[in-house]
TrEMBL record, chain A:
Organism name: Streptomyces monashensis
UniProt feature coiled coil, ranges: none
Protein's name in the database: Protocatechuate 3,4-dioxygenase subunit alpha
Pfam (any one): Dioxygenase_C
SUPFAM superfamilies per UniProt: Aromatic compound dioxygenase (SSF49482)
TrEMBL record, chain B:
Family: Belongs to the intradiol ring-cleavage dioxygenase family.
Annotated keywords: Dioxygenase, Oxidoreductase
Identification of the protein by name: Protocatechuate 3,4-dioxygenase subunit beta
Organism: Streptomyces monashensis
Gene Ontology MF term list: ferric iron binding; protocatechuate 3,4-dioxygenase activity
Family annotation (SUPFAM superfamilies): Aromatic compound dioxygenase
Oxidoreductase found in the keyword field: yes
Gene Ontology biological process terms, A to Z: 3,4-dihydroxybenzoate catabolic process
């Protein structure tokens, strides 16, 4: 039996956030970070897009982390996203069959990123979504957002967050580009600015 | 006209004064930097202008963000927490031991969770291709490490003291020596990337990144303490730095354990 307790007074002041800076590229990205889905899994989806600044310029040095549930809505408990090779000290990456639900992708020189993962299932009262955390040079505190997939309009219409954000909801819903292929741009500032979230 | 340290100093002072006025007027203490912090020029086009949308996690305990990705022994090698042993030779620099505890805001330890670090070498140079600072690279030092916290939330790294280095925010801009930390909690909401500094660094007042934390007490929490009990005889100097993660978490209690 599992019990969740989210009560309790906040007592200890937190460690402040800082920017990830420009030089994390040899430290945080790992082999296969974007290939989260087990090989050949029928529920695989690909989400891709750009991370853009307030001038509409793509960021070649943003880091995107994606975290989502399995297609049945359960939360993955498997480790092994960034398996290491004790022989070489390098990265082995995932083992190809287990689903950890989490991936990390650095945008490329064009500011583009993609993730291949499993189609998330619904949890609680929300429509299915992938949780996203964005880091970048210049971003002093990371930003959370969500990628909702566009296929189930009834579920999207009933989602508590999407109903609250009004005409900005489109920034949270990926566009369809093909079977299982979706487009999701992250606009840090300005016109079409992505809805970013804070958890309380 | 080139931006000088004096220009940045004035902006830093103005941001501090604005923060102190907000607090004096009854606004809450700010533990984190504002994303919109002009003295750090890279922030100007990279922060949202719209307010963040609050998610009440108490209203829906099923949110996937209340869970964290899992990491385990497979995600490490035995020497990943010793940055001085990753090459055939010894890196140049003062060896240090950095250790502390990973806690949540209730003071509970975060167990078996991933901490990743990266840093410049002792000359202040990152092993990154785009790093142009003409300090020497060290063939025996990459500057990347990772570990899992233990059952009490403790972590420990062996590395060398990183050097300060110049950057191009303004003329004669220098970053105080620091180690980058990337940390997971029991919930994805608690995700943290930050930087640990060393005590009494004379560069602190000039650095717009550190000063982006405008609250004095909060800024102090980014600075490690020298801890003689962590120093290893004939080997390394010890620094203690505890990390407290912000953000709500679901507390999982398995009955019968």
């Amino acid at each position: 039996m599992t019990k969740i307790d989210t009560s309790g007074p906040e007592q200890v002041p937190p460690t402040p956030s800082h920017t990830v800076g420009p030089f994390y590229g040899y430290a945080l990205p790992f082999r296969g970070g974007e290939d989260i889905a087990p090989l050949g899994h029928p529920d695989t989806v690909t989400v891709h897009g750009y991370v853009l600044d307030g001038a509409g310029e793509p960021l070649p040095d943003a880091l995107v982390e994606v975290w989502g549930p399995r297609p049945d809505g359960t939360v993955p408990k498997a480790d092994g996203s960034l398996r290491r090779d004790p022989a070489t000290g390098g990265h082995l990456g995932r083992n190809g069959v287990e689903f950890t639900g989490w991936g990390r992708i650095q945008t490329d020189a064009d500011g583009h990123w993609y993730a291949r993962t499993l189609r998330p299932g619904a949890r609680g009262g929300s429509a299915p979504y992938l949780s996203v955390c964005v880091f970048a040079r210049g971003l002093l505190v990371h930003l959370f957002t969500r990628i909702y997939l566009p296929d189930d309009e009834t579920a999207l219409a009933g989602d508590p967050l999407l109903t609250r954000v009004g005409d900005r909801r489109g920034t949270l819903i990926a566009g369809t580009e093909g079977t299982g292929l979706y487009r999701f741009d992250i606009r840090l500032q300005g016109e079409g600015e992505t809805v970013f979230l804070e958890y309380q | 006209m080139a931006l000088t340290q004096q220009d940045i100093d004035l902006e830093i002072a103005a941001e501090r004064a604005a923060y102190e006025k907000r607090v004096a007027d009854g606004a809450p203490v700010e533990h984190h930097p504002r994303r919109d912090y002009v003295p750090y020029r890279s922030s100007v086009l990279r922060h949202p202008r719209q307010p963040l949308v609050a998610i009440d996690t108490g209203a829906d305990p099923e949110l996937v963000e209340l869970h964290s990705p899992a990491f385990g022994e497979r995600d490490l090698t035995g020497i990943d927490n010793d940055l001085t042993r990753q090459h055939t030779g010894e890196p140049i620099g003062e060896r240090i031991t950095v250790s502390g505890r990973l806690l949540d805001r209730d003071g509970r330890p975060v167990r078996r969770q991933l901490i990743e670090i990266w840093q410049a070498n002792s000359a202040g140079r990152y092993a990154h291709q785009r790093e142009q600072h003409d300090a020497p690279l060290d063939p025996n030092f990459t500057g990347v490490g990772r570990t899992l916290t233990d059952a009490e939330g403790r972590y420990r790294f062996t590395t060398v003291q990183p050097g300060p280095y110049p950057w191009r925010n303004h003329v004669n801009a220098w970053r105080p020596a620091h180690i980058h930390f990337s940390v997971f909690g029991t919930a994805f909401t608690q995700r943290l990337v930050t930087q640990m500094y060393f005590p009494n660094d004379p560069l602190f007042p000039y650095d717009p990144i550190l000063q982006s934390v405008t609250d004095d007490a909060a800024r102090q929490r980014l600075v490690a303490s020298y801890d003689h009990s962590l120093s290893v005889p004939e080997f390394s100097l010890g620094y203690r730095w505890d990390i407290v993660l912000d953000g709500p978490a679901a507390t999982w209690t398995e009955e019968g354990r």
